[in-house]
Design goal:
By secondary structure, the protein is α/β, with parallel strands linked by helices. It has twelve helices and seven strands. The strands form two sheets. It has a five-stranded mixed β-sheet with strand order 3-4-5-6-7. Strands 1-2 form a two-stranded antiparallel sheet. This is CRAL-TRIO domain-containing protein.
């Protein structure tokens, strides 16, 4: 038995997985999926196997439409991770995994939007292998300082739809909050592009702080944040995020879709 520490829902893993496998057998999905993977989808939908089934169908459909998701390996995204694009310093006060995304590091000569997107999905895959992240979700902090028109031009309708789908209806992860900081004026254009594709739930969990980190602290304890955002931890630039993946065993629960 597992306890969802966020909502205090008691899950009977064996029963839920059994019920989920019945639904999968009735579908056209023929992958050899581990119980661990199935629990990712179940937790993402708070124990509702019918909704978990819908989420799984969406994920399988996406891997067929965009096969690179199914063949995602560490070396494919290592150059992005090594660029200090991402950091995950701590869990916040409610147990959510924090993921910092530092777009200040986005050099278009080194990383395409596809590179960044695949690295982000890779991070999600690794994080969702943690039970605490499955049950409590994640908090994103998106630093968009130095975002330029050239960056915004990368977000074609094709990519906007894929990114929005992954965040809402495809990947088995729960976003408890998305906090945008250091946004320049051009960010308004990017938000306008994404806005029609976002659900009301995501819109209500999206916050724009500018350079007012005190408002970030109203949501995330500064003890869990780097000094870049007036937090108590070391600078984000010094965090060795890629070592989380390359110095520990990489979870392969999503490899069944290869």
């Amino acid at each position: 038995m597992n306890i969802n520490t966020k909502s205090r829902v008691l899950f009977n893993d064996n029963e839920l997985v059994s019920n989920f496998r019945v639904l999968i057998k009735e579908s056209n999905i023929n992958y050899s999926m581990s119980d661990e993977l199935l629990m990712c989808f179940i937790h993402a939908r708070k124990g509702d196997v019918q909704r978990a089934m819908k989420l799984l169908n969406n994920y399988v459909r996406m891997t067929k439409q965009y096969p690179k998701l199914a063949y995602l390996c560490p070396l494919r995204v290592k150059h992005v991770l090594d660029s200090h694009f991402f950091a995950s310093p701590h869990r916040e006060q409610n147990g959510c995994r924090i993921l910092l995304i530092n777009l200040r590091k986005w050099d278009l000569h080194i990383c395409s939007l596809e590179d960044v997107f695949l690295a982000l999905v890779f991070c999600f895959q690794r994080m969702v292998s943690e039970l605490d992240t499955q049950t409590n979700g994640i908090v994103l902090i998106l630093d968009v300082k130095d975002l330029s028109l050239n960056h915004v031009r990368q977000f074609t309708p094709y990519w906007v739809k894929i990114i929005a789908d992954i965040a809402q209806d495809v990947f088995p992860i729960r976003f408890q909050g998305i906090h945008v900081v250091n946004e320049p004026r051009i960010m308004k254009v990017l938000v306008a592009i994404f806005w029609p594709f976002l659900s009301n739930k995501i819109r209500n969990r999206l916050f724009f702080h500018g350079q007012c980190f005190a408002t970030v602290h109203q949501h995330v304890d500064p003890a869990c944040l780097p000094s870049d955002y007036n937090g108590c931890m070391k600078s984000m630039d010094t965090m060795r995020f890629s070592s989380v993946f390359f110095e520990s065993e990489y979870s392969k629960i999503f490899d069944c879709f290869n």
